[in-house]
Known about the structure:
Elements: H1 2-15, H2 34-47, H3 50-54, H4 56-78, H5 80-84, H6 90-102, E1 106-110, H7 126-144, E2 155-159, H8 167-178, H9 188-194, H10 208-230, E3 233-237, H11 245-259, E4 267-272, H12 278-292, E5 296-301, H13 306-316, H14 326-347, E6 351-356, H15 360-373, E7 381-386, H16 391-399, E8 404-409, H17 413-426, H18 428-432, H19 435-452
Parallel strand pairs: 1-2, 1-8, 2-3, 3-4, 4-5, 5-6, 6-7, 7-8
Bound molecules: flavin-adenine dinucleotide.
GO molecular function: FAD binding; proline dehydrogenase activity
EC number: 1.5.5.2
Protein name: Proline dehydrogenase
Amino acid sequence: MLQTYRVLSSQAGSSAGGWQRLRFDSGAFHLKGTGELTRALLVLRLCAWPSLVTHGLSLQAWSHRLLGSRLSGALLRASIYGQFVAGETVAEVRNCVRQLKHLGLRPLLAVPTEEEPDSAAKTGEAWYEGNLNAMLRCVDLSRGLLETPGPAGNILMQLKMTALTSTWLCKELTSLVRDPKASLEVSPEKLADAMDSTQDLQISCLNAEQTRHFRASLSRLHRVVQYARTQHVRVLVDAEYTSLNPALSLLVAALAMRWNKEGGPWVWNTYQAYLKDTHERLRRDAEAADRAGLAFGVKLVRGAYLDKERKEARLQGTEDPTQPDYETTNQSYNRCLELMLTHVSRRGPLCHLIVASHNEESVHLATKRMWELGIPLDGPVCFGQLLGMCDHVSLALGQAGYAVYKSIPYGSLEEVIPYLIRRAQENRSVLQGARREQELLGQELRRRLLRRT
Ligand SMILES: Cc1cc2nc3c(=O)[nH]c(=O)nc-3n(C[C@H](O)[C@H](O)[C@H](O)COP(=O)(O)OP(=O)(O)OC[C@H]3O[C@@H](n4cnc5c(N)ncnc54)[C@H](O)[C@@H]3O)c2cc1C
C-alpha cells in the first residue's frame, strides 16, 4: 500500500508542474461579494481595537440593555457573528458551507462550548451529557454536509475534551501522568479497555463519585468517536492549557488504541508549537504510533493561550512552559512541520496532518516541503484557518488544489458570542496582526469602486 501511495504521490507532485510560491494577495477575493468584503474589513478593523476586545463582554451586555435584545442581536449578526459564525440553524450552517464549497473550501465544524477551567457553572453530569448530544449532532451535521460523497474520511470535526469531562479530573490525571510511580494506574491500555466495559476502574486518588465521573467521561468520549467512525468523520481533539494537556493526550492515546487501527487516524491530537517541549513530544508520539502500527493524526498549531500560560507560571512560581518569543515559536512550528511531513512521506495515509495556521510563511514552507517530498496536494496533509480569518490564504490554497478547512463555530448568539469574545482575547496578537488582510481587503474594495466610476 505504501508503495502505491509513493507512486501516486510522486505523480501528483510532478503533475503539479513544480512547486510555485502561492500568491497571497487580493487576487482570490474576486470570488467574494462586495458586501462580504466590506463586512470583513469593518469587523477586522474593530477586532484590532484592543479595548473593544478586552471589554467585549461588558460592551455586549451594555448594548443589550441600551438597544434591546432585537437591535443589539441584529447588529451582532451583521458584524462579528456574521463574520466568524456559520449560523444557528442547520439550514444556515448548510448555506455557509455551500458558499465555502463554491470557493473550494471545506468545513471543520466546532461546537462552541465556553467554560473556563474550574468554572462553578459546571455541576453534575447533565452539562456534560448535554455537550455529548451536541457533539453527536455535530457528527451528523458534518456527515450530512457532504452532499456529493467524496473520498471516505475527508470529513473532519473539532472536539473540545473539557466539554465532556471536568477540568478538575483532567488536572488529577495530569498529576498522575507526571508521577512515574502513579502513571501505570492510568495507562492508555487500561483506559482503552475501560471505555466500554463495566469492569471496575480503580484509581487510588479518586473517591467513588469521582470514579463515576471518570467512567462516564470515558464512555462519552468513546461514544462520540465510535459514532464518528461509523459516519466516516475524523475527530480532531483541541489542545488547551498545560495544566490539562497531559490528561487530554492520555485520553487521545487511549482512544487512538481503539480507533486508529484501520482507515487512517480517526482521532487526532493537537500540538502547540509555542510550548518548549512540543517538538520532543511530537517526535516521541509519532514514533510510538509507528511502532504500535497505529495511524497518527496531528493538528499543528502555534497555540492560543500564551498570556494565560505565562500568567499561571508566574503565579505558581514555576518555569514558563512557552517559548521565549515569537521567533522561537516560529522555529518550533517549522521543526514540527518538518517532522510531520517527513512522517507523512514515509507512512503515507497512515499519518495525517492539518497545518492549522494563518501564517503565510508556514503555509509556504508546508507547500514547498510537500512538493519536495512528493506528498499529493489533496492527500493526508491539509490546511486549516478560522472562518472569517485570512481568507486570502485559504482562497489561494483552495484555488491551487490543496485541501483547506475553515474551522466553523455555530450556534445561537447567546452561546457563541462569549466564545467568540474569549477567542478574540486569546488571539489578540493575530487579530492585531491581521493588518495585511485589512490592506488587501481595502485594495480590492478600492479597485471595485474605481471600476464602477
Ligand atoms: C483550525 C484551527 C484550529 C486551532 N485549534 C487550536 C487548538 O486546539 N488549541 C490551541 O491552543 N490553538 C488552536 N488554534 C489557534 C492557534 O493556536 C493560534 O492561536 C492561531 O492560529 C494563531 O497562530 P498562527 O500560526 O495562525 O499565526 P501567527 O500570527 O503567525 O502566530 C501567532 C501565534 O504566535 C505565538 N506567539 C505570538 N507572540 C509570541 C511571543 N511573544 N512568544 C511566543 N509565542 C508567540 C502565539 O502562539 C500566537 O497565537 C487553532 C487555529 C486554527 C486555525
